[in-house]
Amino acid sequence: MAVARVNLRALTSWVGIARLFAVVLSCLTFSLVASTGNFGDASGTWCMFTWCFCFVVTLLVLLLELLELYPVLPLSWDDFTSAFSMLAVLMVFTSSVVFPATFISSPCSSNQCARQAVATTTSFLCFLAYAVEVGLTRAKPGDISSFLSTVPGLLKVFEAYVACLIFSLLDDYSPKSGLLWCIAVYSICFIFTLLIIIFTIGRCLAYFPFPLDKVLVGYNFLALLMYITATVIWPLYSFKGRPRPESCGRNCPWDKHLGITFLTIFNLIAYLVDLVYSSRMVFIRTPS
What we know:
- It is a single chain.
- By secondary structure, this protein is an all-alpha fold.
- Helices cover about 75% and strands about 0% of the residues.
- The protein starts with 8 loop residues before the first helix and ends in a 5-residue tail after the last helix.
């Protein structure tokens, strides 16, 4: 039976201080937005979910580390906290951009708009707090005790998140063979990347009967090749002979396809960097 002990270092270390700032800032952000009563559409709901989700999970992480209860959990705690902090960076950054672009209009003179502007500021500061946590907990060169705290591990979270953003924009497309291939690329790479993250956090990778590090390098290489094809095929099938309509509104499919194009390029770069780093970790050994 686990006995709770108080570990004040969970709050006084630099990582703990960064988490405390993240808790306070995320709470302040969703409280300000909730006080305006103007967050009802899909974008506002996503932003509110992000701030509330990050607040709850970060507070739970602080409590578990403060009471030293996390060792009883059936997961790799360092991998979980590294993956969550990276996910929080991406989610809060997205919300810090989407919320003002959707809800703040110029000129900003009303009391409601002022609170929305303050909420945007606190959201961006919350993003910085999580970014500091990622920087403080990122594994140093040669330290591979926690895979998801290494550059390839953090990139896995980035790749999965960008794929989710791509899926959120896939609401209007023609069933052309090229576009269907691109969707298959996004889906296959997302599923395998998500499984790697889940198996790492669940401490399941050690049970695989093959050299997993080399398999991951091979997977990164295949994912890179698949994303190269998607980077070429998606804009070719989406924009060839289709200029942007003059009456393209806020939810214009043409703009969404353009967003998918840029997100595909982002993931292509991520998989390239992932391949380079993971190859160095596997094939280039530092002399002891």
